[in-house]
Design brief:
Elements (H helix, E strand, L loop, with lengths): L7 E3 L2 H10 L3 E5 L2 E6 L1 E4 L3 E4 L2 E4 L3 E5 L8
Antiparallel strand pairs: 1-7, 2-3, 2-7, 4-5, 5-6
Length: about 70
């Protein structure tokens, strides 16, 4: 059985922190257009930094289909 994981929108600081810690692949959309696929490097209250540049946090949507909680 091929189960597809639910798409998650990462909004909170905790979600973004866990995405970085777990090194998961995310998709960043700007104006409803996919602009980046890869890992988040860091974030602040105003921006999200990736390997290809930075995004103004309030102007983008970050999504993933991966589990963003790192298993210890």
């Amino acid at each position: 059985m091929n189960q597809r994981r639910k798409e998650l929108v990462l909004v909170t600081d905790e979600q973004l922190f866990n995405a970085i810690r777990s090194a998961i692949e995310v998709r960043i959309y700007v104006a409803e257009e996919l602009d980046y696929t890869g890992e988040i490097m860091e974030y602040s209250d105003g921006a999200i930094k990736t390997a290809e540049g930075s995004y103004i946090r309030k102007n983008c949507i970050v999504k993933t289909n991966h589990n963003y909680f790192k298993l210890l």
